[in-house]
Amino acid sequence: MNTIINEQLKYFEALASKKRITIRTNLEEFEYKINEDDFIRVFNNLVSNAIKYNKMGGEIDISLRNKILTIKDTGIGIQEEKVKNIFDRYYRATSEQGGFGIGLNIVSKICKDYNIKIVVDSELNE
Fold first, then answer.
1. In a domain, 125, yes or no
2. Best label site of 19, 57, 58, 64, fewest CB within 10 Å?
3. 41 within domain boundaries
4. Residue 6's domain spans which residues?
5. 19 within 8 A of 56, measured Cβ to Cβ
6. Is 33 inside any structural domain?
7. Is residue 120 part of a domain?
8. How would you write the pLDDT of the chain (126 residues) with one tens digit per residue?
């Protein structure tokens, strides 16, 4: 997985650079039986959101440790009462930025197909 993560991050360099976002990684070797395209969809949707909803000069930390992939950013955050809806198709927790509200729905479906647990911790403006 760490090889795929590093490959995919190359595609985000220009977008992150445009917002002066620093992306840091802490990846250990890990293999998981998942279709590569499915993992890329999950990872790319999460990183894309971390960039899109981040602040200028923000940071993104991507960690793969102890079989847990964590993507943490310094973005705008989500109100607590809206977190439960973010995986619903067409739901958008904010009017900021573009998007159609389908990316996290795709992430949720793929994770359910592979019995992968998703945990969201977010606070508004953090």
1. no
2. 57
3. yes
4. 2-113
5. yes
6. yes
7. no
8. 999 999 999 999 999 999 999 999 999 998 899 999 999 999 999 999 999 989 999 999 999 999 999 999 998 888 888 778 777 766 555 555 556 667 889 999 999 999 999 999 988 887
